[in-house]
Automatic annotation (TrEMBL), chain A:
Species this chain originates from: Ideonella aquatica
Highest taxon of the lineage: Bacteria
E.C. number(s) listed in UniProt: 1.14.13.149
A GO CC annotation given for this chain: cytosol
Protein name as it appears in the record: Phenylacetate-CoA oxygenase subunit PaaC
TrEMBL record, chain B:
Organism expressing this protein natively: Ideonella aquatica
InterPro entries: Fe-S_Maturation_MIP18, FSCA_dom_sf, MIP18-like, PaaD-like, Zn_ribbon_PaaD
Residue stretches spanning the membrane: none
Domain MIP18 family-like per the UniProt entry, residue ranges: 10-73
Superkingdom to which the source organism belongs: Bacteria
Domain PaaD zinc beta ribbon: 125-170
Name of this protein: Phenylacetate-CoA oxygenase subunit PaaJ
Matching Gene3D superfamilies: Fe-S cluster assembly (FSCA)
Length: 272, 172
């Protein structure tokens, strides 16, 4: 017997929180892949610490989204584990950026490249810190309380990852080459972080949280300063737009979910 | 409130003063500042209001269990734990006694959080971080080895005077 999939509420507030929670969870899962493999011991510990914070943030958001969903559809609230482990791929709403592999060429079989991880950490942590800051003003008290805690953690994450971008970008020939390659690999997935749709419009109108586009100006300013200091060049932005936040993912998310969901699917309700 | 209830709550606080933090057993959950309130609910159960330190702190569930076990062992139950996220926990809530015990245990206690802790992140030209005194020899000549340590709340440092490595409880 395997655990059947659940279908979460499609209410805009629930989707808004799931986007944020899924971003935290999938990013954390990718960071966890470095456990025991990071270039130095301190960084192994740092990456898993980041991952732990992100999982904690995701848990709080899932629990709250489950309650909001139950208010929408009736019935028992879905709990954090059901939301984390028992959805189909198209019901995950994280931006595509966080599901990409760590490899230098973007392929799932390539060797992990710490530069890709480092740049993505800085991009995601900057976006999250800005989002959490705004969410501390949420009209939803629980969301505001989760954000007030998370923003303090996100500050450490942003500082730490930005320090590494600077160190590697403005470092040796090889580290600079790898960092610039990471920029080329990831840059086209950044615009999705600021694409509004009806979920964002609803959140902004209800005071639940900021529309994605409203974070862009501050994000661009902080990242531009970091890139300049790190001697990295931003490529031109093309017409490609990734669509993970709408549930249409790259080929990579399915593999992540297969690994993440395996135990809960095979042993429904399993706990330890 | 009747005197019986007041006394039960008072006794509960006394018991909780002795419940150690599972990851930093030198200090109690009260000294850490995570027990926000103790009250008696309408159904007669004792409610202990806890606030999480970090979103992902794996000790949260252990703390809940040890708090409830301690109250039950002191025959003050039935009791339950409630989570209160607002206002967010800050290291400023660690008591002076707690700070002293941390230092004795070999962990440099957190400094007070400052307005700089909410200012925009600076990558370069940032203010020098306040020096962290070595918990063993008190020297301010120390350096940070890693912003992250064995638990979410600590960073790794080394003393340049006595050469001993130590942990620092990060201000947050």
């Amino acid at each position: 017997m395997t655990a059947p999939s659940i279908t979460p509420s499609r209410a805009p507030a629930v989707r808004y929180l799931l986007r944020l929670a899924d971003l935290c969870l999938i990013h954390a899962q990718r960071l966890g892949e470095w456990c025991g493999h990071a270039p130095i011991l301190e960084e192994d510990i740092a990456l898993t610490n980041l991952s732990l914070d992100l999982i904690g943030q995701a848990r709080a958001l899932y629990t709250h989204a489950g309650r909001l969903g139950a208010a929408d559809t009736g019935g028992q609230p879905l709990d954090e584990d059901q939301l984390a482990f028992l959805r189909e791929e198209r019901d995950y709403l994280n931006p595509t950026l966080v599901e990409l592999p760590h490899s230098a060429d973007g392929s799932p079989r390539g060797e992990r490249d710490f530069a890709v991880t480092t740049l993505r950490n800085a991009l995601v942590a900057t976006w999250l810190r800005l989002a959490w800051e705004r969410l501390t003003e949420s009209s939803d008290e629980e969301v505001a309380a989760i954000a007030a805690k998370a923003v303090k953690e996100a500050r450490y994450h942003q500082q730490h990852s930005a320090d590494w971008v600077l160190r590697l970008g403005d470092g040796t020939d090889e580290s600079a080459r790898r960092m610039q390659n990471a920029v080329e690999q990831l840059w086209r997935f950044v615009p999705e972080l600021f694409e509004d749709d009806e979920v964002d419009a609803h959140a902004a109108a209800s005071g639940l949280g900021p529309a994605a586009s409203s974070l862009k100006e501050a994000f661009d300013a902080e990242i531009a300063e970091l890139m300049a200091e790190a001697q990295l060049k931003a490529p031109a932005v093309g017409v490609f737009r990734s669509t993970g936040r709408r549930g249409v993912h790259s080929e990579h998310l399915g593999f992540i979910l297969a690994e993440m969901q395996h135990l809960q699917r095979a042993y429904p309700g399993g706990a330890w | 409130m009747t005197s019986v209830v007041t006394e039960r709550i008072q006794q509960a606080w006394t018991v909780l003063q002795q419940v150690p933090d599972p990851e930093v057993p030198a200090i109690s959950v009260c000294e850490l500042g995570i027990v926000r309130d103790v009250q008696q609910a309408d159904d007669g159960a004792l409610e202990v209001v806890l606030t999480p330190t970090y979103s992902g702190c794996p000790a949260t569930e252990v703390i809940e269990r040890s708090v409830l076990d301690a109250l039950s062992a002191a025959q003050l139950g039935p009791a339950r734990a409630l989570t209160r996220r607002h206002p967010a926990w800050t290291t400023d809530w660690i008591s002076d006694e707690g700070r002293r015990k941390l230092r004795e245990y070999g962990i440099a206690p957190p400094g007070r959080t400052t307005p700089a802790d909410t200012a925009p992140i600076r990558i370069v030209r940032r203010q020098r971080e306040a020096s962290v005194a070595c918990p063993r020899c008190d020297s301010p000549q120390t350096e940070r080895l890693s912003a992250f340590g064995s638990t979410a709340c600590k960073a790794l440092y080394r003393c340049l005077a006595c050469r001993e490595p130590f942990e620092h409880f990060k201000p947050i």
